[in-house]
Design brief:
With 414 residues, the protein is α/β, with parallel strands linked by helices. The chain has two domains: 135 residues, Alpha-Beta Complex (Aspartate Aminotransferase, domain 1), CATH 3.90.1150; 233 residues, Aspartate Aminotransferase, domain 2. 38% of the residues lie in helices and 14% in strands. It has 13 helices and 13 strands. The strands form three sheets. A seven-stranded mixed beta sheet has the order 1-9-8-5-4-2-3, with helices on both faces. The protein has a three-stranded antiparallel beta sheet with strand order 7-6-11. β6 and β7 form a beta hairpin. It is globular and about 75 Å long. The structure holds pyridoxal-5'-phosphate (PLP).
Length: 414
């Protein structure tokens, strides 16, 4: 019997971070790219031939999209997408109950009201059935924000017909899904628009950053105008065609992203292979079931590697204790966002109404209980994507640490 590290034993994965590369990574290429921007004295993207322009076309091409509009971060990417597809104050926007809060706050920033859809507890993604039920029940829904949770693409085959039938726009939240594919097509412009994040923890990063993708020419022109405070790039700087805000990405961000884009392409392939390998290892342990992927998923870009912890299989030991034990072994496991969004303080009556336009009716978030979201968050365990950038030995260490805990679960029962 091995003693668990949390009980003073030897951590079985103590060498894990010798095998996992540091994140975010950088080298001479990134340093040179930044210095070039500094020395060019063109730090803002408003000149033609900007790095932001080149990044937009390069990233859009990689993601099989016709247009890209680079922005300051992933939150405003979603805001810009929702605004562009026509979401206005008082509209409703369907959002999955389990996601980062920006998927919902992008709507409230426009004065629109999030309506939480349940999720499929096996995939972690928005449930098409729940979306259909909301559309049957509610008037005034303008858009659905579909999050590819952890990088796992949503079921477009089921969602798109529902959107089309109800005249509702589909905005993909791709903050977790760089490189993810549905039936051979990369996500982002499969729906009407898609928003990505390049925040520090994401698969492609400049510390902060974002992009909106679309195949729709009109949306692209409109988003470009909105993102540049109503100006048209290339026209005189003080001609404004609409009232809006400034969402622009800096040239420093664009330079880093351009320097890292080729690396992302290779990393997506490696993470996909390693994700499959780790999933296979976990399936054989039992009680730690990897997040299910639909058959339409042809490539999984990862933000989170996720598995569902089955307390019964681990002798009734609660998830929190299991995670503490796993961390003590050296595996940086976590709980994702920890709760359905409707349980966040920000969605309590007073906090919500304070930021919404006068006259907004409180949708009763405080009394919500969506079974799929509850079940998923109760069991969800996450590992950040960069562990999948290590060699197989590291993944074997993770699996071995879980096996060790399972074999010695008695030590956690007190
Ligand atoms: C699902 C999801 N949507 C949107 C965002 C917002 O991105 P950003 O942090 O770049 O504003 C994030 C970032 O964490 C996210 O995880």
């Amino acid at each position: 019997m091995a003693r668990l590290a949390i009980k003073g034993g030897n951590p079985s994965a103590k060498d894990l971070f010798r095998l996992v590369p540091p994140w975010p990574a950088f080298g001479e290429k990134e340093k040179r790219a930044l210095i070039e921007v500094l020395e060019s004295r063109r730090w803002c993207r408003i000149y033609s031939g900007s790095r932001a322009e080149l990044f937009e076309s390069s990233f859009a091409e990689y993601h099989h999209a016709k247009h890209g509009i680079a922005v300051a971060n992933g939150t405003v990417a979603l805001e810009l997408a929702l605004k562009t597809v026509g979401v206005r104050q008082g509209d409703k926007v369907i959002v999955p109950a389990v996601t980062f809060i920006a998927s919902a706050s992008a709507a409230t920033e426009l004065g629109a009201v999030p309506v939480f859809a349940d999720i499929d507890p096996e995939t972690g993604n928005i449930s098409p059935r729940s979306v259909r039920e909301i559309l049957e029940r509610e008037d005034g829904v303008r858009a659905v924000v579909a999050v590819h949770y952890g990088g796992n693409p949503v079921n477009f085959d089921e969602l798109k017909p529902i959107m089309a039938k109800n005249g509702v726009k589909l905005v993909e939240d791709c903050a977790h899904a760089h490189g993810s594919e549905w039936r051979g097509r990369r996500v982002g412009a499969i729906g009407d628009m898609g928003g990505f994040s390049f925040q520090e923890s994401k698969s492609l990063t400049a510390g902060e950053g974002g992009i909106v993708l679309t195949d729709n020419d009109e949306y692209a022109a409109k988003a470009r105008l909105i993102h540049n405070i109503g100006r048209v790039l290339g026209r005189p700087g003080y001609e404004h065609y609409i009232l809006s805000s400034n969402y622009r990405m800096t040239e420093f961000q664009a330079a880093i992203l351009l320097a890292k884009l080729d690396e992302l392409k290779e990393q997506v392939e490696k993470k996909h292979r390693n994700g499959e390998y780790l999933a296979d290892r976990l399936r054989r342990i039992g009680g730690v079931e990897p997040q299910k992927m639909e058959s339409g998923v042809t490539k999984r870009g990862y933000y989170y590697f996720i598995f569902r912890y089955d307390q019964e299989e681990f002798g009734g030991v609660p998830k929190g204790k299991f995670i503490s034990a796993l961390r003590a072994e050296g595996v940086p496991a976590d709980v994702g966002y920890g709760m359905p969004l409707y349980r966040q303080k920000a969605f309590s009556r007073d906090a919500f109404l304070e930021v919404m336009p006068p006259g907004t009716k409180y949708p009763g978030y405080d009394g919500m209980y969506l079974p799929g979201a509850e079940e998923f968050t109760k069991r969800e365990v996450t590992l950040l994507h960069y562990v999948l950038l290590a060699e197989r030995e590291a993944l074997d260490m993770i699996a071995a640490a879980i096996e060790k805990i399972k074999e010695n679960i008695g030590e956690l029962k007190d």
